[in-house]
Please model this.
Amino acid sequence: MILPELNPSQNEAVTHAGGPLLVLAPAGSGKTRVVISRLLHLFEKHGWSDDRILAVTFTRKAAREMVSRIAESRPSFAVPWVGTFHSVAARMLRQHADRIGLPREFAIVDGPDQRQILRDLLEAAGLSEKEHDPKSVLLRISQWKTSGVSPDEAERTSFGPFRADAGLYRSYEARLGAQKVLDFDDLLLRLTRLLKNDPEVRTFYRNQFEHILVDEYQDTNAAQEALLRILSRDGRNVTVVGDDDQSIYRFRGADVGHILSFARHYPDARRVVLSVNYRSTRAIVGAAKAMISSATSRFDKDMSSAGGKGLPVVLKKAGNESDEARHIGLRILEKVSSGSRFRDQAVLFRMNVQAQTFSRILTEQGIPYKIRAGSDGFFSRREIRDLLAYMRLCVNPFDRVSLSRVLNVPQRGFGDKTRNRLEALADKEALPARRLLSLLAEELPQKAADTARRFADDLSEGRVLAEKGEGVCPLLSFWLERTGYERYLEGLGEPEGTLRDRRENLRELSRMADRFDRSWKAVPERTPAGVFLEELALSQDDPGDTEAGETPDRVALLTIHQAKGLEFRHVYLAGAEEGILPLRGRNRVDVEEERRLFYVGMTRARETLEITYCLTRQLFGKTDSFKPSRFLFDLPREFTEGDRPSPAGAGEPSGIGRSVSGTHSSSGARHSEPMGVSRRSEPGSSEVPPKPKIVSRPEWIGRVVRHARFGQGVVEEASGEGGDLELAIRFEEVGVKRLLERFANLTAD
DNA sequence: GTCCTCGCGTTTTTT
DNA sequence: ACGCGAGGAC
Model:
């Protein structure tokens, strides 16, 4: 097959035959094209039918893009097995649900549901949310689950407050089981377990998929990696594509170690590096390359730009965040007057709060912009969650979270007392909602009992409607009408605007249901509502985001995380300050991940890149002064211009391990304002110290150790830096400490 | 059962 | 600054 438009390494990645393949695809290296070309190449070369290849992505957006790109190239292919890890797993699990005692219509609980379950469990256990923050406990539970630690083991190896967390883990699992629902982790874990225990199913899929391709492999977590391994023929028929430098999701379990050690885990894996950047100018690539090369754990890749030299990366110092925004606004207008559009430009920052200043200032300057809805997105709106809860109860009557949510919405006169009674009944025995309500009715006074029975009847009616399978709209309308939801909203006494928004959201939900019903094709043994709800559960997409067609001419205001995978002609990377980027959180920072984040931000730019930093900034209500980001010192003079920061020696970040700042600053830098002294590199010492070998040491995580002074603790993170093993250990008494294993003198416990 | 006030903590986000 | 949760008042 002739692929004339591909460069040699792209071509190698596309045509590689046999054996595991790792494609290292840095920003702008034509990754998507290579992925699509490879899939088409495999189809054509082998004459496989279109269900013989599995392609997994991390986001639905990426999956959608893959599907449409394939369709563009070869409309004849359907490629049914393209999806997210979770959607693919859900599909396989439903297929074989009977083998593991799951109903085919098992529901999937999302983040807010999980949090609600945990809150209920905390209350039942008499624990406070203060000491057991639901989010962190869930994170902990997720770590336990993904690393294969059972509640029993967790209880054995935990101590202090974690003992209680382990107890919560046990009851959390029990409650999910009783409700016949799975969380996101379960989708992967249960499938992996099924494949492990059931040779028939395992053989079935291993035979079905001639080839498996994984995109954004640097974002895989342990559960996904385990699934990939068992689903594939021991990795023989696997292609993974990714970029270790763009791994920015460690906080949610991604382990860059998977991509870094791919060759170790999959013997005779072939590695192809796509090293030509077709996106950005030489200046941008040069600056980004220099800055990421100071990272400690990465593949040493070469990168070159296929473009022209371009304009230098501009560094700009601003007095405060308003000045910063005003400056960027003016630059945006300059670009527009010289022919660029607003939508060619993007402002990138570390934290969502930073968007507020830009929003205010850009409005003043008359610049159109768009901000992606954050946590107040469509699917976290009360009206949406309420109606979805009603619908979910009809698909899965065991869903306690949904029942509890709508118990008193609209008001039925059920308060805490009634709720507790209901919870107690549900604890005793797993029963469908209508049975629970009938039982409850027996304990209630006449009037309340009638209400409970009416509610139970409504639920039965809704259930019948859902089972009939005539679509989502009838079910939605049923609940809207039966609950008098509009009247309920009116009675809330909220401001006019809020009420209007809520009504508009409900209309949007109806439209979504309508669109779904129109395109709905019968799936054996599944109800439309079940499929609809699964689609929503697996996509927390803002519906506004997915509206196709028009692309309004607006500047994009994005966090760097949101910008991943996107590109813009002109990028403004704002807030390049110590404490912001790298961010200094309450706990500690993972400077390496922050560096990659900075890198991802830089590499979004095609033509121009401007990086700004503020001397002072108002954050959390008070004004503080900030120092320029250490990463700015890694940008070579050759590719930059403007306000190069002068190294300030004082106030190095505390903690063990050398600071990055200064160590790698370009040796020839002249310091216009030599206020600091110490941090200059010796002239001629521009040699970067030899790259330490990797890196992530997952085998340490979860180990219980004893320290002479701090006592007993559990290892939360482990990474090798400069040949040393650095551990983050949570101690019972003193909290999290970061220690070098070499010096800490730890004993196993 | 609902409203109000006080105090605290504050990343990043997908499925 | 601001929102959220806990706890008290009505």
Observations:
- The first helix of chain A runs from residue 8 to 15.
- Chain A is about 45% helix and 15% strand.
- Residues 128-130, 353, 618, 620-622 of chain A lie near DNA strand C (CB under 10 Å from a C1').
- The two ends of chain A are 59 Å apart (CA to CA).
